[in-house]
Amino acid sequence: ATGQYCDRCLPGYGGHPDCVDDCTNPLVSCNGHGATVTGTWPSCVCPTCLKGFAGPKCDRCATGFENYPTCADRCAVSTTCSGNAESVTGTTGNCVCQCRKGYAPPDCASCLHGYSGNPCADNCQNVTVSCGPNGAAVTTAQVGCKCFCKKGWGGEKCDTCATGFAGANCSTCARGFTGDNCDTCAAGFTGHPACYEACSSVSVSCSGRASAVTTTALAGVCQCTCLTGFAGLRCESCADGYNGPQCTDACTNVNVSCGGRATSVFGTAGVCTCQCKPNYEGFLCDTCAPKYRTGYPQCLPDCTDVLTSCGPHATSVSGSNGNCTCTCKAGYTGALCI
């Protein structure tokens, strides 16, 4: 009772002078933990308890909560996160839900904007949700959503570059394409929308390092005739014996630097010195040595010197132009007296 003379009932009580619970005030009937109350005294019923509480009078903790009357959350996906979370972290009373896609924090009990239904699903009303950051508009399709992508983007979810576009932001034309909308084939390419190599330009097909380019049986696969020093399908690398950005002579291969007419080679940056075979001379072994004057590049013995033409076991030599006849010392025989 209340009042100056205790002659009336407090809110939630009725029937003065008895002043019993009249089942109208959840604070009274449900221990302050109910949202609604129904029934008549003495059978008041609390059909909807506040989160964390349970029982006909909201007089105990619900599953997943503890320590009545505070009933702190014990951090369980089923209770803390409405069963709609991938996981939950934190400690009792301070839980954090990692909601599943489409559900809104903090308790994953409702759908995020752009999702609806049960379970929460993409409703094709939010372009960012349905198409990602590269979508321009979205509509409902017969199955799922239909995205209209921003310039340069393509794919069902606008998550890949559209045909003709490339780059991290799909903002530049891909190789072989040109134009404001990257919708035509660039010079040296043909066959839109594929825009494969036409095999008509050494700059395009052969890295600018070929003397000629021709087509093959496969569309877009070209045959390059590489310049000296270059190799590879597109003349994109240095041939053996060459190195550096311009693929200059590396002075490491006698066949490259000395025409195969040396026993070894040394030097750097295209300035090579060759250790010539006996019948050649010069920095690159590109002339015949004395007594080998029968014509470069063969440089055969000229049959004027016994040691040169026949070796140490001959007494004389005759002939010309590499067709030498040796007269051997006693005990030796053969064309070269060996």
UniProtKB/TrEMBL annotation:
InterPro entries in alphabetical order: EGF, Laminin/Netrin_ECM, LE_dom
Q: Where is the Laminin EGF-like domain?
A: 46-81, 224-258
Q: Which PROSITE patterns match?
A: EGF_LAM_1
A Pfam family this protein belongs to? Answer: EGF_laminin
How is this protein named in the record?
Laminin EGF-like domain-containing protein
Highest taxon, organism lineage: Eukaryota
Q: Which UniProt keywords apply?
A: Disulfide bond
Report the coiled-coil segments. Answer: none
